[in-house]
Hints:
It is globular and about 55 Å long. The mean pLDDT is 85. The protein has a single domain (13-194, 208-402), classed as Growth Hormone, Chain: A, CATH 1.20.1250. It has 16 helices and no strands. It starts with a helix and ends in a 5-residue tail after the last helix. The chain is mainly α and 403 residues long. The chain crosses the membrane at residues 20-43, 49-70, 82-100, 106-123, 173-194, 226-250, 262-282, 289-309, 315-338, 350-368, 380-397.
Amino acid sequence: MANLLREYFPAFTHRNYRLFWTGQAISLIGTWMQNAALNWLVYSMTRDGFLSGLMTAVQFTPLFAFSLFAGLVIERFPKRKILIFTQSMLLLFAFILYILLFYNKLSYPIILLIMFFIGSVQALDNPTRQSFVVELVEGKEHLLNAIGLNSAAFNAARLVGPAVAGKVMADFGAKWCFLFNALSFLAVLIGLLMMRMKDVSARKEIKDPLKDIKEGLRFIRSNPKLLYTIISLVIIPTFCMNFNVLVPIYTRDYLMMKEKAYGILLSSLGLGALVGAVFVAVKGKKERTLYYQLIGSFGLSIFLILLGIVKSYNLAIIVLVFLGFFMISFNTTSNSILQYNAPDEMRGRIMSVYSLVFGGLTPIGSLYSGTLAKYIGPHNAFIVSGIIGLLGFSILFRRREIL
């Protein structure tokens, strides 16, 4: 068993990484339960795709506003201590959502306010977690394996969380999804506190924040692998990965189905993503990451178009499995390309740009998909998104000489 672990999942040979991964695997189930409950709750409240998209946009707006500055904070302070703070705050906000819904005090405007605060914390939490991985595995030798395993945990939770949320919402009510999420953050905090590591920062001080940010952006522009990865992350996630907004509308208004079907559809996406993440962790090699990125972007675009065409619930499940596989192939390899090519002293800034384009542009994608679903239907929104994805793929394919 130990030899099997070292051969296929060498990142697990690092104690600190095992603690981090275990805590995340538990916490992410709660996160996906909360996400599924919130999207269903908001659409049930408003019956407006635009307002569903607006909620997601409000959550991710702070990522757009604060991510570049977060990179400097990450390089200035120990990442473990930053994560203890951010995970504690996310626990608090999940508990507030539970309390408000328990007493029937949760309204759409209050949800928007809380989501803004959650997004503000995530603007610091997301790039910190991304750049922390290389420290947990003590270098770049097992980095791609660790990123793949992180994606596996994320997507195992995507598989389990929405299905459990659908069952819990149908039988007991959405509020219990928020309580479980709050409690799940304790697993992460315990793991962080149990780690044995020196809490050191990459930099002793920040003299000129704007100058330092510009230095990081210039470095990305001068490195073709970084630059074209960032360009692809601007296009593909923004226009092709708006499942949280579109799937509840697609389930309710196009397939004419209810909570449990919605949970299964989201879990199908998670199943495909889990398979893709394990595949990248086991088979992925540094030299092949750019090829996997191209394959992921192409497959994602084609299956988005197929999802818009099919009207069978069972076929939609199958298409979403493939969508999850190609989505995670693109995401994981894009992340690893940035980390492999990031110097230690700039990792915080480079991963903050990753968070900016991957999450910070989500408001644009959410408003785009919510508006499109409102006026032309969710199935047509998937088709349009797939066509845009093919345009993004063609840009990357033209630059294949950098492979």
